[in-house]
């Protein structure tokens, strides 16, 4: 719940320093854990170069953090879980295409 509030507050803040501190201490650790759980749950750990993909996904989540809208009725972590899962599905398709 506190991470949920931190993400909502992050989206509302305009001061770069406050946003950076909030991200670094509250949001980043939660997103790191979210990405790791998605990888294990959906067995994306079988992808080649999963460590670099994991880092790329975390960067991607940072770039879409501003797009979360709490007024749409979804929880922040369910929203970011779907984004993470879809990102890895896309990477799986890209990898399969390369293998062909």
Keywords:
mainly alpha, 100 residues
What's the structural blueprint in terms of helices and strands?
Elements: H1 2-12, H2 16-41, H3 50-63, H4 76-99
Largest sheet, described in full?
A: none
- What multimeric state do the chains show? single chain
* Total helical segments: 4
- If you compute it from the alpha carbons, what radius of gyration comes out, rounded to the nearest whole angstrom? 15 Å
* Topology pattern, helix = H, strand = E: HHHH
Indicate the percent of residues in helices.
over 70%
What would you call the structural class? mainly alpha
Mean pLDDT metric: 93
What overall form do the CA principal axes indicate? elongated
Strand content: under 5%
Which regions contain 5 or more consecutive residues with pLDDT less than 50?
Answer: none
Summarize the structure.
The chain has helices spanning 2-12, 16-41, 50-63, 76-99. It has 100 residues and is mainly α. The mean pLDDT is 93.
Please describe what this structure looks like.
The chain is mainly alpha-helical and 100 residues long. Helices cover 75% and strands 0% of the residues. The protein is built from 4 helices and no strands. The protein has helices at 2-12, 16-41, 50-63, 76-99. Helix 1 (2-12) crosses helix 2 (16-41), helix 2 (16-41) crosses helix 3 and helix 2 (16-41) packs across helix 4 (76-99). The protein is elongated. The relative contact order is 0.15. The model has no long low-confidence stretch (mean pLDDT 93).
């Amino acid at each position: 719940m506190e991470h949920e509030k931190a993400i909502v507050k992050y989206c509302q803040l305009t001061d770069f320093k406050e946003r950076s501190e909030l991200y670094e201490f509250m949001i980043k650790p939660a997103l790191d854990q979210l990405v790791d759980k998605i990888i294990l749950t959906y067995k994306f750990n079988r992808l080649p170069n999963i460590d670099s993909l994991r880092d790329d996904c975390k960067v991607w989540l940072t770039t879409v953090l501003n797009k979360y809208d709490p007024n749409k009725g979804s929880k922040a972590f369910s929203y970011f879980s779907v984004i993470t899962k879809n990102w890895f599905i896309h990477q799986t398709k890209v990898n399969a295409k390369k293998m062909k």
